[in-house]
Give the backbone structure.
Amino acid sequence: MMSSKRAIEITVNEKRYEGLVEPRISLADFLRDQLGLTGTHLGCEQGICGSCTVLFNGETVRSCLLLAVQANGAAILTVEGLAAKAQIGDRLHPIQQGFLETLGFQCGFCTPGFLMTLYEFLNENPSPSEDEIRERLSGNLCRCTGYQNIVAAALWAAERLRAKSDR
Amino acid sequence: MYVSDVRLPNMLHAALLRSIHAHARIRSVDTKEALRLDGVVGVWADRETEGRISPFPESFEIHPARWLEGVKPVLQGPRPTALARGKVHYVGEPVAIVVAEDRAKAEDGVDAIVADYEELPVVIDPEESLQARATLVHEGSNNNVVFSFSIEKGQVNEALGAVPYTLKERFRHHRYCAAPLEGRGVVAWVEPKTNILTVWSSTQMPHLVRRQIAAQLGLPEETVRVIAPDIGGGFGPKVFVYPEEILVPFLALQLGRPVKWIEDRTEHFISTAHGRDQLHDVECGFDQEGRILAFRDRFLLDNGAYNPMGLTDAYNTAAHLQGPYKIPNFSVTGTCVSTNKVPNAPYRGAGRPEAVFVMERCIDTIAARLKLDPAEVRRRNFVQPEEMPYHAGILYRDGEPICYDSGNYPETLTRALEAAGYDELRKRQRELRQRGRYLGIGIGCYVEGTGVGSFEGARVRIDSSGQLIIATGATGHGQGHETVFAQIAADLWGLSLDKISLVEGDTASIPFGCGTFGSRGTVNVGSAIYGASVRLKEKVLRLAAHILEANLDDLELGEGKVFVRGFPQRDLSLSDLARAAVPGWASKLPEDLEPGLEATYYFVPPTVTWANAAHVAVLEVDVQTGGIKLLDYVVAHDAGKLINPLFVDGQIHGGVAQGIGAALYEEIAYDTNGQILSGSFVNYLLPGSMEVPPIKTVHLESPSPLNPLGVKGMGEGGAIAPPAAIANALADALQPLAPQVNEIPLTPDRVLQLLARREVNVEAGAI
Amino acid sequence: MPLLNLRLTKPKILVDLNGVSSLDSIRETSGGLSIGAMTRQSRVERSSLVRERCPILAEAIRYIGHVAIRHRGTIGGSLVHADPAAELPAVALALDANFEVARDGRDRVIPAAEFFIDYLTSALAPDEILREIVFPMVRPSSGYALEEVTRRHGDFAIAGVVAIVDLDEAAKIADVRVALFGVASTAVRARKLERALMGQEPNEHVFRDAAALLDDVLDPPGDIHASTAYRKHAAAVLTARALHRAVQVCHDRRL
């Protein structure tokens, strides 16, 4: 019994795509398999680990808990699109640079989810305290770092972003 | 690039039918419906693979002859088949594999298979599994015992009869698991031009996987290539070979198309190895000063249905029980039993956390009984710095007598307590108690055998651009090998880091490899890089001497070139030398040197080198709800010479976080039918950013005499002591109420039960 | 969605309500704060209208999972899902919210007390959709608190209590609502306890004595996270704590 495919139009990292998807395919699978954007990772497919976090119309969501057809007409930002959001002259977005500076990642599997969560968070709260950072990041699981260096990366990035916006 | 990111043209997807029963005979596996589904390409059960895929070995453990002779272990484990044959032994055991055009269709195929089972009695409790009348998990087994051993030093029975005080305790170190964020996955295809069966697997051991694929599919090893791409966390369960790692390559061969299998999280919990799960019965004799005089431990390890690593965990436990202490009379008996659960294999720490939990809780229990400070009791038992190197009186699992080579255990503890502000904490504890609040401080000390063999290799070469390329059989899962190994090479060659590249995890890049596990990377790979560099440098200098017509002794190597001392303009860059070391007409080689600037060295460590550490956990417990809040965590760590403290700290943080998970949150639970109750992240609770406090690290360095770099391993360390330190901290917090904290995880419920129980243990020989 | 991913449910047809914009709304009505069923939890959390008129609702939402979950999760979704360990059903019970339910041609209103039937079971018939929930406003003079025990931050509660308290001029309890979650097959109102507290002085003894009256609403499950006995114990402890804090908030709001 074949379920018929649906046509969808979706903007990902400011590029328009057209796709044909079975209704049961998740947004995460669509991004990874059909668009080849494998930066978004699947760690649980239950919305708990946060590795699949992307921005959907400007808000963080678990792409494993959205059907691709639900993203028809939406604008998605994935980790592949972060560097383009950096300022001219920077190779990486300050959040990404922060992770390099503080060794905020080890195996890297959870990292895209953290980056997207921080991207939204630092936009809302440019001067967060360590406690506020830990609270916001509590929805993303990491098995390698113990979170300490991720928090340090967030603080580094926050400072860098504030400096850039002051200029 | 992780294995799930590998995309090949015409790729098929596989999904597995797994047993839904913990113990059952397979009556039939009806695949007709599945085969009829649109997009399903094939379905295989054991009847289709028997005779074409040989069974797995009893275990992947290497048994050095000296260890076998010295310990005389019982090794009688079963040999698992790739797909269940005749019987299923645990919920999750692979029964059939479906291949289809995409993952969803493959899973549809799995749903369409009708498997008929005759349920058998389920064995869940390891103590019950030993009973004479217990159901046998594996036919022909001796009361479900698969592995066991017994070691003794001194005269334990006599000593226990003569000591002033004894404690008798039972400790349970429960079942939990590594849960890397990336599960397992395999992609295989036969590369069309070379006909090489090329396999990507999220594994810590590509050479082992290659060996098994070749052995079990009857292929020459040379026709198989295994690549470990970026791995999203290993931690131990990716250290042996799984059915899927043989099945998926088999199917790629059968079908002539690439085949991909990626496990999902719920599959992971019922198919990727669990860890720990030990039950210890301890009798410990001590004197008035708190010195341990005799120690006897009999423990059970719940293997699950298989233990692919044999006695690794169990013997590690025995080898690490004495810790940094002098114990004149000591005996351990370890017994691994089968139950109808997921296989049990080493997980970060691999038997050491269980040992440390037992010993460190005993130390604190002794301290409580004698009303001594727990730090003081440790000091009285430590091997003193002037007693180093110290012979612990038993063999390590490499067959060598254990010798603690270097380290200052009292100093490590002092530094940890200093960093934690111990005296201040004790003061604060007293003040808070008067206000009805319960603060606890707990210590966990340990020694760790690191850098275990049997070997690791490094192939170092210089390419025509002057780049130094290192290939090794180790695999990286985030430990920073690219940086750390490059640093070692940079130091040896006087090169900047950008002139050095690392290739790891690919069997095509180096013929022999072991893998990354057991806190062995820096020791073994580092030393192999050293050995290979010594050889290559010699060749480089001899070639340079020949071309520059200089004496070997007058040459110096640094900053990417060789030059004559005192005459820097007479130089040759590494790039020049690489281009000179070619065969044929362009060659500038002397007669006695072969083309190519390359050397390989396999480092075989003489035995393990001993790191040590002291952890301090500080917590507050809410005695009304049983809730525990970790306030502070300190690690003083000695892993010999440190190459990169930033990466070392990262490893410690991660290990401690996993240890906190074990102590407070994580638990693999089964019901009496062998169904897993914690089969997803909903019930299996990984600690998050609010659960792991900031961790303070203090580094000490007592270099290792066992390798040219003076390094020791430390990858597992962070995970070894937290259960002990946190359990000790809870017991310390509740001192006035004196509960006996012998089990983890310390859930709110368990904490309240401890408070309600308040057992007082009676000791022989009152003061 | 997790159920779909786990293949625990295999519907032939899935209807996506995300396109029905009229179900996404927050407005003040005579009955209270009327919130459309498809309004995102994060929107309700941030709404200044909610924070002003029904602060316990905004506070409770902050305990739900994590931000990314709340961006997609809806008020109606959580309520209809009727997980006994969730915060929102208990808040709805405590506030005596009214559920406006739409059916082809025949709409009806279900009071909160009748909405939660059993474990994961609401009073909705298979052909009904929840349209709006009307939350009576919290009086400016009232104090409120939510207390829960979780294994980790953001987890489902092992046990939890929502308390709303109003004091009279003599600083005695004039109105009190106590709803619990995680302690039975649905969220529950502790009416016997509420009646016993009326007119009483709000102190520790009174709260502790009253907590003993929780027995007839407590029927907690035992699972991997906590036993039945633990949940009963925690319910009593949390009730006393929630009442204590609600009274404190009450005093603070009056200042």
